[in-house]
Model the fold of this input.
Amino acid sequence: MKRILLPVLAAVACCGCLAIKTEHEVKPIKISMDVNLKVDKALESAIESEQRKPPARFAEIRSMLQAGKIGFGRGGALEPRLELTQEEADALEEAAAARTTRLSEIAKETGSTLSDVRRSHGEKMLARMPAGTWYRDEAGAWTQKK
Done:
């Protein structure tokens, strides 16, 4: 019995020591981080900062908004609704340029696009604007917030 067992054990031991080659493929895992959260946080911070320290010529802009001479275009950009004086147009242009600069910085900081940041900003501005403020609706028509 020992004579049979010894060769069988040797055969089993040899088989157990054989290397078995396996092939596997490493596939990349796609992870998508919600950039909207970063954009929202940055926009909230920018809006709060603007409320604490209003930009230059803010009083003029607020006056034009209240008079209905300007309104919020799509993406939250300030746009003329009615004819403006040169001084009003200059104030609007200055405010629009400052806002575009800040939104561009947010886009760069968050790895988003300027158009996505503008869209989010427009949604936030629509939610925050007081009743009576003019804005462009989805169709592009001027509408007064109720």
The two ends are 99 Å apart (CA to CA).
